[in-house]
Amino acid sequence: MEIEGKKFKVNNQDKIFYPEANYSKSDIMEYYKKIAPVMLPHIQNRPLTMLRYPDGIEGKRFFQKDMPDYFPDWIETKELEKKEGGKLRYILGNNTATLVYLASQASLTSHIWLSKIEKPNYPDKLIFDLDPSDEDFSKVKYAAKVIKDFFEKLKVSTFVMTTGSSGLHVVIPIKPELTFEEVLNLSQAMASYLEKQHPEDFTTQTRKNKRGKKIYLDVMRNAYGQTSVAPYSLRARPQAPVATPLDWKEVSSLESSAKYTLANIFKRLAQKKDPWEKIYEQAVSIKELKEKFEDFL
Q: What is the enclosing helix (H) or strand (E) of 198?
């Protein structure tokens, strides 16, 4: 196969990755080829972790951070320090050929850093990851609205995305001014504040068996080396759902995080521009946000 002048061999193109929806490796590669113009701006120059399913979504999976030696040398990479010492050579999803090649290697889902390689220890977004402790998606929507309202009081814009799994991500684009450690500390303080304001609804308890039916305000993705699912990435669920950026007005009628799939995402994009197309134009000073929050308390 050749894409953008980059050549690579593809085996088992007819292998089924999504049995219920009957999507093959070839279908997944075609998806990433087609979605690339919308997806690439969100992952450009960000260290990428692969989530690979060699035998399809019903088989074993594994995360892979370090680029294997047998991957083509035209794939862009960045070597970064591990928190525990040593280095890893991360893939950068900077072009269509790379996205399609990763799909050919059974990497169905891409997870990306919250920082770019230019300033790897300085995140340019802050994330609240909201997942239900039960099947009640309305709780997730309520939590997302509470967080949106909270940041509106601080005069900060927020963005929302389905994870394609069971929850929502609320994202605040920030200027890369503080380290991951500083941003994590701030996000933990914010989560604790929201938990105290809504003790019946939210928890910051990391242990699942102690959360009850509350929504876990997960801010641990705001740490160095942690990742979040990339916008427009496929998820390993039966109908091939897609992590999809939304307008806030769409959230109230949303019935699940898996609404958008490989089957309908392009219809959506034909009717509506990517809601996150200009997300970083609204980046706020994280230093100023920290001061605003401290004054708010």
A: none
- Whose tokens are 């080396």? That residue is 225
Report whether pLDDT(67) > 90: yes
Task: State pTM to two decimals.
Answer: 0.96
Q: Which spans in the chain are helix H?
A: 25-43, 96-104, 137-153, 180-197, 265-271, 286-296
Cα end-to-end span (Å), the chain:
57
DSSP for 80-106, written as a single string: EE-TTSSEEEEEE--SHHHHHHHHHTT
Structural domains of the chain ordered from first start: 2-117+227-234 (3.90.920.10)
Q: What is the C-alpha separation between 260 and 241, in angstroms, rounded?
A: 6
Structure tokens at 125: 């977004």
Average pLDDT over residues 189-195: 97
Using DSSP's 3-state secondary structure scheme, residue 209 falls into: helix
